[in-house]
Design goal:
The protein is built from eight helices and 17 strands. By secondary structure, the chain is an alpha/beta fold. The chain folds into three domains: 141 residues, Rossmann fold (3-Layer(aba) Sandwich), CATH 3.40.50.620; 62 residues, Roll (SH3 type barrels), CATH 2.30.30.280; 88 residues, Elongation Factor Tu (Ef-tu), domain 3 (Beta Barrel), CATH 2.40.30.10. The longest helix is centred in the first third of the chain and has 20 residues. The termini are far apart. 42% of the residues are buried. InterPro entries: MnmA-like (IPR004506), MnmA-like_C (IPR046885), MnmA-like_central (IPR046884), MnmA-like_central_sf (IPR023382), Rossmann-like_a/b/a_fold (IPR014729). It is an enzyme of class 2 (transferase).
Length: 366
């Protein structure tokens, strides 16, 4: 096959590209330029997509002897990822920009151009697996599993994906990179949001969407803090609340709701974070089971947030309702709900599909 190796500049994509070459594919390396001014992203950031990353990707391709290109997707990234991130915060949601980047840029946009140029698939260093029947599965290394952030892909994108490192634990990937002589063999993993390399989300939002003045209230409606920036809070937040009056029971407070329209942030005890019902829309269908009613497991964060549940899918209404068999905490609108089915083999759970959470609550029986 003619394949595009998406080269982030990290060790995982480097080994994925090497394995694609070893498998006999006709491979080119492509690094995505996602910023109009990549020099503004400091070197050695814990994000990605910097000039340093581009140079690392080029060196790996030179060692592999494959062509290397940089494709400029900065406009689309700004519109569909950064713009979506800001809009979501303005609605009081908790977005995951890396999910949207995977969905709209690293797969949809890359594949769109690649297929137009005659390529068959995209190879990435994501930790996930596709089985012989085309189902997306969890990775061999549970600590590195990235099936959650891939659960927002559509069936078309998944049918044109290769994930060569999903069957290998991370330490072995680094050893393999070292054997190839890749300079990124010991490069740290990236964690931060690439367009906020200093990690200060509140300051970024202040520069881009401004400040939404408001108040912090408790569940009874008592105002605890005034002249605050509503955009600076997220569901489940405990630190940085700066409330001078302690709770009557002396326990910590958590953010339980954010309403930018009314300019209010609600705080309460930890148990107020627990939800047993989740509603979602913008559904993605990756398995025939994603229809009607069925039992499954839902994951609502990239790391953790797992619960068994009963799912009800209404395809006509683009609607998903989940009744959780055990409560989850810190579930916020804007997050993805990715559904899994257990498998009889040892390849890991199967991703059924996903939706974007738009509301949460407690079941009527409680």
């Amino acid at each position: 096959m003619r394949v595009i190796a998406a080269m982030s500049g990290g060790v995982d994509s480097a080994v994925a590209a090497a394995r694609a070459v070893e498998a006999g594919h006709d491979v080119i390396g492509v690094h995505l330029a996602l910023s109009k001014d990549p020099a503004a992203v400091r070197e050695s950031s814990r994000g990605c997509c910097s000039l340093e990353d581009s140079a690392d990707a080029r060196r790996v391709c030179d060692i592999l002897g494959i062509p290397f290109y940089v494709w400029d997707f900065s406009e689309r990234f700004g519109r569909e990822v950064i713009g979506d991130f800001m809009d979501s915060y303005a609605r009081g949601e908790t977005p995951n920009p890396c999910l949207r980047c995977n969905e709209r840029i690293k797969f949809a946009a890359l594949l769109e151009r690649g297929i137009a140029l005659g390529f068959d698939a995209v190879v990435t260093g994501h930790y996930a697996r596709i089985d012989d029947e085309g189902h997306l599965r969890r990775a061999e290394d549970p600590k590195k599993d990235q099936s959650y952030v891939l659960g927002v892909l559509g069936r078309h994108e998944l049918d044109h994906c290769l994930f060569p490192v999903g069957d290998t634990p991370k330490p072995q990937i680094r050893e393999e990179a070292a054997r190839h002589g890749f300079p990124v063999a010991n490069k740290p993993d990236s964690y931060d949001i690439c367009f906020i390399p200093d990690g200060d989300t509140r300051a970024f939002l202040g520069r881009t969407i401004g400040v939404r003045p408001g108040v912090v209230k408790d569940a009874e409606g008592t105002v605890l803090k005034e002249d605050t920036d509503v955009f600076g809070y997220t569901i489940g937040q405990r630190k940085g609340l700066d409330i001078k009056t302690p709770a009557k029971d002396g326990r910590p407070r958590y953010v339980t709701a954010v309403d930018p329209t009314c300019g209010t942030v609600t705080v309460g005890p930890r148990e107020h974070l627990a939800v047993t019902r989740i509603h979602a829309d913008r559904l993605k269908y990756l398995h025939p089971a994603m229809d009607g009613e069925f039992e499954c497991t839902v994951q609502v964060r990239a790391h953790g947030g797992l619960a068994p549940c009963h799912a009800t899918v209404d395809r006509a209404a683009d609607s998903l309702t989940l009744e959780l068999h055990q409560p989850l905490e810190g579930v916020a609108p804007g997050q993805a709900a990715v559904l899994y089915l257990p498998a009889d083999d040892d390849l890991g759970d199967i991703v059924v599909g996903s939706g974007t959470i738009n509301a949460t609550g407690r079941s009527s029986q409680e």
